[in-house]
Amino acid sequence: MASKKKEVTLQITISNQEQWEETLSSKGLLVVDVYQAWCGPCKTVVSLFRKIKNELGDDLLQFAVADADSIDALEKYRGKCEPTFLFFAGGELVAVVRGANAPLLQKTILDQLEAEKKVLNQGLERKVVKDEALLEEEEETSSILAQVEDDELLPSGKSYTVAIIKPDAVAHGKADEIIMKIQEAGFEILAHEEKTMTESEARDFYQHRAGDEKFQELIQFMSSGPCHVLIISKSGEEDVIPAWREFIGPTDVDIAKKEKPESLRAQYGTEVLYNAVHGSNDREQASRELAFFFPTFKKQHQHTDELASKSPERTLALIRPDVLRDRKDEVLQSIQEAGFSIAMQKEVMLSEQQVEEFYKEHVNEDYYPALKQQMTSGPVLALALVKDHAVKHWRSLLGPAKITEALNEAPDSLRARFTPSEGEINQLHGSSSPVDAEKEINFFFPVEHTLAAIKPDALEEHRDEILERIQVAGFTVSQIKETNLSQEMAEEFYKEHKGKPFYDQLVNYMCRGPCLMMILSKENAVQEWRALMGPTDPTEARTSAPDSLRSLFANSILQNAVHGSSNINHATEKIKFIFGDIDLNGNINGTSDKESTKNTVEDIEQSEDSNDGTTLPENEE
């Protein structure tokens, strides 16, 4: 059965180095879509690849998707957003195509497949290539590393300390919760590594305590399981060590609970030895511990700083009403062919007040009345485009703002190609600078907050994997709380579905064990989280969204791993239900969880979604 399923899969999924090496050893031509975990494979080419595969029916042609973040051989492709397709034959790179350029991809596939057949059948020499773009980056990186070789250990004025989340806290599943509390307290995590120390390493690390009575017990404990090692800093602190030690509390847990009940050790420790977290005593010890756990941190940290400016850039694009109505697909195709990725998109009807706010710098211009009339004549499509130097490339692709200039000076530009049916206002907008781009993106895609939950079965089995995917997807976890829903709370939480066939099952299932409740924050958070979750039915998810959480971790429609709000109003209501009165920065006001639940539950409105009662509705996933 397994082999049959593999035959009908269009794209092989490669998620680790071993699979990469195995797949490259296959015979024929392999076309690999190299992607970043945070933005996923390029979905726009799937139909093209399927069409080519169906038409050719050639077993020598294979397609694959490969996660650059988890494959050592693709390390140099990490941090890039532009779609990249690598062509391999005989384990060698024979071609590279950047951007979702359908005609170029089709031509390259046909040409390279024909060339490989000649290699296999006629013994011709295979033409191997190198990725020229990577060679240029290697030269830039070498130059950067040469410049930082003699720099300070950390950026000037940056105080740091080493922190350890000990094996007892990790074993009890508290590491993520502790990390969230660290960040909420204003500490910056400069580096983070999970590590299991050997007894020898633990002995070396704690050599300054070799004379302690319980030294051997300490060594055995610290080498008993994985711990999380962090480098901690804090803006505005000349010396972060006192602030960190104040935050973690006294070594003795009993004293911590009496004197510093809000400290980490009071909340997560059980006794002196099993006190959950470690912190450096002074700068000298911090420096020694840094060298012990992160001997190459100097290069890694500063290399990241120097290359930060090379990260893909975002810009805002607007398709105005006339062209959106008549030629939307053509414009989107042009955007994809130019190598842009669409990070977010939203179709919206703007009011006159919104247009005035967005174009406030143009309100006194002669053309503003016509611009306002155009922008309010129908819906516009807002797009957040991503690419290296996105602002510059998008403006170049647009051409001159005046239609007459675009037609005369840049006839191949988008504004010349997509002229309006009437009037003199061009139909495409682009941000003028990176700063303006971020402001404009925030105008159309403001940061939202949504309620997310990891349900009991998934929390027990897949907690860390789901949290990692949430982080990779770019969400900020503003609040997090593990809680057991009582029968009463679960009934109130899902009261809009009372009387439906699945209601009792749903309530009983949600009371089976603890859930992890979270407030997730991100631009377009509600829809982004729903997309990451995938369809309610995991069977459907595995077909239509194979990388979604429900495809990967759900067992059934009822036990579908995660929950998410269906719209921003629903999210606000449910956040209030679970976390009480809370501001956007995550500060809880007033009563405790259960008290606030009782006080606010009657305020939760009925869901607007209709349902025949046979399946779980989309807003209660």
From TrEMBL:
UniProt-listed InterPro entries: NDK-like_dom (IPR034907), NDK-like_dom_sf (IPR036850), Nucleoside_diP_kinase (IPR001564), Thioredoxin-like_sf (IPR036249), Thioredoxin_CS (IPR017937), Thioredoxin_domain (IPR013766), TXND_domain-containing (IPR051766)
Catalytic residues, chain numbering: H278 (pros-phosphohistidine intermediate), H429 (pros-phosphohistidine intermediate), H563 (pros-phosphohistidine intermediate)
Family assignment from sequence similarity: Belongs to the NDK family.
GO molecular function, one term: nucleoside diphosphate kinase activity
Keywords for this protein: Coiled coil
Region (Disordered): 588-621
Coiled-coil residue spans: 110-141
Cross-referenced PANTHER family: NME/NM23 FAMILY MEMBER 8, NME_NM23 FAMILY MEMBER 8
Compositionally biased tracts (Basic and acidic residues): 592-601
Domain Thioredoxin: 1-115
Swiss-Prot/TrEMBL GO biological process terms: CTP biosynthetic process; GTP biosynthetic process; UTP biosynthetic process
Protein name: Thioredoxin domain-containing protein
Signal peptide stretch: none
Source organism of the structure: Pyxicephalus adspersus (African bullfrog)
Residues the record lists as binding ATP: K455, F502, R530, T536, R550, N560
One Pfam family hit: NDK
Amino acid composition bias (Polar residues), ranges on this chain: 612-621
Keyword Coiled coil annotated: yes
Sequence ranges of Acidic residues compositional bias: 602-611
